[in-house]
Input
Amino acid sequence: MKTLFMVTALSVDVIIMTGGTPVPAPGPEFSDVPYAGLFGDTVIARVVEEIIADPHSVYHPRDLEELTGASSPSVRDALATLTRFGLLKTAGGKHPAYTVDRSKKTFVALTLLAYATLDDRQGSDCMNTAIPHYCETVRSSCTGIQVYGATTAYRISGESGSISPVILAGCGNAYRYPAGTAPQD
Amino acid sequence: MVPAPPPSDGITLEVVRFLAWLKKRGASQRLLYCNKKWEQKGIRVKEICRGPARGRMRMQNDPSTGEKWIVLSDLVWADNLMMEYGEEIPHHSQWIEL
Output
């Protein structure tokens, strides 16, 4: 008689799921690979993750070298790339300091990506919480926020003496733009 | 920036920014790294674990390396604080406190 197949007992660990139980994390819990490894563990990914996570700090190349454990040239390259893309603004010639340009949509998208990778790993709902809140704040800024801060209306005039559109400015600051190029933001 | 609510229970803007940073870095990070970045800003991570974030953020050893990690476990609590302080997505269109 031949043995066609064997039946063996397998032990399977089961977590009883309830409505609020988060989905178990697929990856290792203790990992600091940026964006859960979506872009690999590169210097630029590490720098991006750091500046997106803390967009308020002023970054110096040396700080980022210490924080990321990367070499000076690779951090400089990463910073140059991010400056070229407009995600970072730089000041200071010999000892440059970098700040995050939070007006960039790339910044908003990468912030949401940080939440998305966390959600996919932990089964949380951070991204879906952030999106409506973001939309609310953006919409309110687009619908008459100047009314609250404005005390004086300034007429912006060009060099030629022609009058460009009237801009309401808060805080008593007047700005001078060439006629017809006054920004609406 | 949204006008910061008055500090309560040891929660300050800097603490919320630390929580936001931790959350955006996967909600867990080496204690060493947390200290390296945040101590200079006056954030004492262990004190936050024991104080305002008690039961919501914990210190845990990585069994494979023995390293201490800080793990943010209550993401909803962190979310609410971040929204309250305008730190969820701190973009340029938010209110600025004059």
